[in-house]
Design a protein that fits this description.
The complex is a heterodimer of chains A (about 280) and B (about 375).
Chain A: E1 5-14, E2 17-20, E3 23-27, H1 54-65, H2 68-71, E4 80-86, H3 91-100, H4 118-128, E5 134-138, H5 143-156, E6 162-171, H6 173-179, E7 184-194, H7 205-211, E8 216-217, H8 255-268
Parallel strand pairs in A: 4-5, 4-6
Antiparallel strand pairs in A: 1-2, 1-7, 1-8, 2-3, 6-7
Chain B: E1 4-13, E2 16-17, H1 19-28, E3 34-35, E4 48-49, H2 54-60, H3 66-81, E5 90-95, H4 114-124, E6 131-134, H5 140-153, E7 159-166, H6 170-178, E8 202-209, E9 219-227, H7 240-253, E10 260-264, H8 271-285, E11 291-293, H9 296-299, H10 306-320, E12 322-323, E13 339-340, E14 345-346, E15 352-359, E16 363-370
Parallel strand pairs in B: 5-6, 5-7, 10-11, 10-15, 11-13
Antiparallel strand pairs in B: 1-2, 1-8, 1-9, 3-4, 7-8, 9-16, 12-14, 15-16
Classes of the chains: A alpha+beta (about 280), B alpha/beta (about 375).
């Protein structure tokens, strides 16, 4: 496929704070993303932010930090694809809804839609008017690579002229141990545009870091997955085996997004540090 | 790049194991909706669903494992019909909303992760090519087929197995109940008396191949997706998002509205969905539509399985040259231009079939099939 694709904006949220093309490094308030008020980060309105689940909050902040609204003008949003790739989505919402089903409790209708990670993308679409294809992927192995590959494919095949890719998960400290997974509050958002990267080329790693994240060639990012892949350790376990109380060891899953967020901080400065 | 053919089909539904059992029930107009059995004690606003028979669940042992077992059965059938293609370069796309909820609901390791379910299925049927899991709410199945087609176009795989699966649980039933989306009785899509949807559980599978010799005589010729950018749980009133997705599917196919012989509707039975579909198709066709029908009054809404399962109905309509109708449909109050079928009806030879879906988050997806 010959359609070039470049990264035009990048934003991120993790437990440390938020950062991006359109946002100086900013720490989250005590209590994390759940306690964050939109106005603490952005000089704009977001009337729905308060009711969002933690993962949707992270996605909204990361996309805003990436400057998506500036980089994709309204007239191009009909062709903007939204892609989410995660391992579990928001386990916090899953558990919160399940707990609301207990006898004597009030079932939580406002939480139910957020048990689907694709709802994050719907929130973005409503806020910004993105009307392109929507793809929500779940991967046990390489969600970051899959998310980037599929977003790029949507542009390369002419199904979208731009894409917003969100890579991340939310598992709170309070529920992680009981589920046997590590807590995570992490979303990386990338704005992909069709066309050549404006300005310099050929691709050079040092130049990339210099210019990053204002523009970035996607060519070296996330090559497509082909052929056999390593099966995760859990797949050898008997189906349905109880895992409560066990915590999986950290894996390569999410490694890309963590590396990118670290690079972002190196380039743009850590929270409280120089911009 | 050549055409993308349908080379294998599979299903496991409350009608029994196999695509033939499912398609036969659809032809006969038999409904699997019945009084709740496994979920009878669940506090919800309906007394009806298309549950799998108790003996099937007992054989599996734990309802939380149902999505996997249903998917494995449907996948096995599709692979068999396709002549057991080599697994090394076979891709797998799994479509589900929540997959295996073990770990969230009781003990287990599923954690509602579609990706985890996909890896387990890939291991069970020895698929070693690229694989992915799609969770796009009720549009998951069609989004999954579209993803498989993209892989083929980009040369990532020459064959892709797409499997949609979901099961019923208190989590799902009470979720839809809390949104006041359930009909207390059996759903009546497009009927003026409709009060909401009925839920079901099932799996469906499609094998996509580039090899014409493996074709069952039907191709995937187009796909289109869009977002309403309107509401998180409700469809747009005017149907513009679904019209846009349909237009994109036809454009990719190189076809126009005049080439459509049959529309298989999403048809959930909620007041707003059905009205939206009528409006969307009226906008697309600008007048009376081709013959159209849905099948959720027979299967219930099988969520992540629905798109794949109902694609089998659209494919069968093309193969047989006739489309199923809804014999129980009363007076309809959706757009008068939507030509709803009330009985099995011949469709134009040589035309294409559209399969529509829409889901939470404003997601719309449409596939176009042709002989």
């Amino acid at each position: 496929m010959s359609v070039p694709v470049h990264i035009a904006g990048i934003g991120a949220v993790d437990a440390e704070g938020a950062i991006g093309s359109a946002l100086a490094a900013t720490p989250l308030p005590e209590g994390g993303i759940a306690r964050l008020r939109w106005k603490q980060l952005f000089d704009s309105e977001n009337a729905t932010f308060r009711r969002l689940d933690p993962l949707s909050r992270c996605v909204s902040v990361a996309v805003e930090a990436a400057g998506a609204a500036d980089r994709i003008p309204p007239e191009r949003r009909s062709g903007t694809a939204l892609v989410m790739a995660s391992r579990f989505g928001c386990l916090h919402s899953d558990l919160r809804f399940e707990e609301s089903l207990a006898p004597g409790r009030q079932v939580a209708p406002a939480v139910f839609p957020y048990t689907l990670p694709s709802t994050c993308l719907g929130e973005l679409a409503v806020r910004h008017g993105f009307k392109g294809p929507v793809l929500c992927l779940s991967s046990e192995l390489e969600p970051d690579r899959e998310g980037l590959c599929e977003a790029r494919a949507l542009i390369e095949l002419g199904e979208a002229t731009s894409a917003i890719v969100c890579l991340g998960d939310y598992v709170g400290e309070e529920e992680a141990g009981g589920l046997g997974v590590e807590p995570v509050c992490e979303v990386l958002a990338l704005v992909l545009l069709a066309g050549e990267r404006p300005g310099d080329s050929p691709h050079d790693r040092e130049a990339l870091l210099e210019s990053w994240p204002r523009s970035l060639d996607i060519a070296e990012e996330a090559p497509p997955a082909v052929g056999p892949r390593v099966r995760p350790e859990w797949s050898e376990s008997p189906p349905g085996a109880a895992r409560r109380g066990r915590t999986e060891k950290s894996t390569r899953v999410g490694q890309y997004r963590r590396e990118v967020i670290e690079r972002l901080r190196r380039v743009l400065g850590a929270p409280g540090g120089p911009p | 790049m050549g055409a993308i053919h349908v080379g294998g089909r599979g299903a496991f539904t409350p009608f029994g194991a196999g695509a033939a059992a499912f398609l036969g029930a659809v032809r006969d107009g038999r409904s699997a909706l019945r009084p709740l059995e496994r979920l009878a004690g669940v506090d919800c606003l309906t007394s009806v669903a298309a549950e799998l028979p108790a003996d099937v669940v007992a054989e599996v042992g734990d309802w939380r494992s149902l999505p996997f077992h249903l998917a494995r059965a449907a996948a096995g059938e599709a692979l068999a019909e396709a002549g057991e293609p080599a697994r090394a370069e076979l891709g797998l796309v799994v479509s589900t909303t929540k997959g295996d909820l073990s770990g969230i609901c009781g003990p287990g390791a599923g954690l509602g992760s579609p990706g985890r379910l996909a890896e387990r299925l890939a291991a069970a049927v020895s698929i070693e090519g690229p694989r992915a899991a799609v969770s796009c709410a009720c549009a998951s199945g069609l989004a999954a087929v579209a993803l498989g087609c993209r892989w083929i176009l980009l040369g990532r795989a020459s064959r892709v197995l797409v499997v949609g699966t979901d099961s019923l649980s208190p989590f799902v039933v009470q979720g839809f109940s809390s949104l006041l989306a359930l009909d207390p009785g059996a759903c009546r899509p497009f009927d003026a008396r409709r009060k909401g949807l009925s839920l079901g559980e099932a799996a469906g599978a499609l094998l996509l191949t580039t090899d014409e010799r493996e074709s069952l005589g039907v191709r995937v010729v187009g796909w289109g997706e869009s977002n309403d950018a309107n509401h998180i749980t409700g469809p747009s009133r005017d149907g513009e998002g679904l019209r846009l997705a349909s237009a994109r599917a036809l454009e990719r196919a190189g076809l126009g509205p005049e080439d459509v012989a049959y529309i298989h509707l999403h048809g959930t039975g909620t007041v707003y969905n059905d009205a939206m579909e009528g409006n969307a198709m009226a906008r697309l066709f600008g007048g009376p539509t081709p013959p159209a029908s849905g099948t959720k009054q027979l299967t219930g809404h099988t969520l992540g399985a629905a798109g794949v399962l109902e694609s089998l109905v659209a494919i069968e309509a093309l193969r047989r040259g006739e489309a199923p109708g809804d014999g129980e449909l009363g007076e309809s109050d959706v757009h008068e231009g939507l030509r709803l079928l009330r009985e099995t009806t011949p469709i134009a030879r040589g035309g294409c079939a559209l399969k529509l879906a829409a889901g939470f988050g404003g997601i719309n997806a449409v596939l176009a099939f042709a002989r």
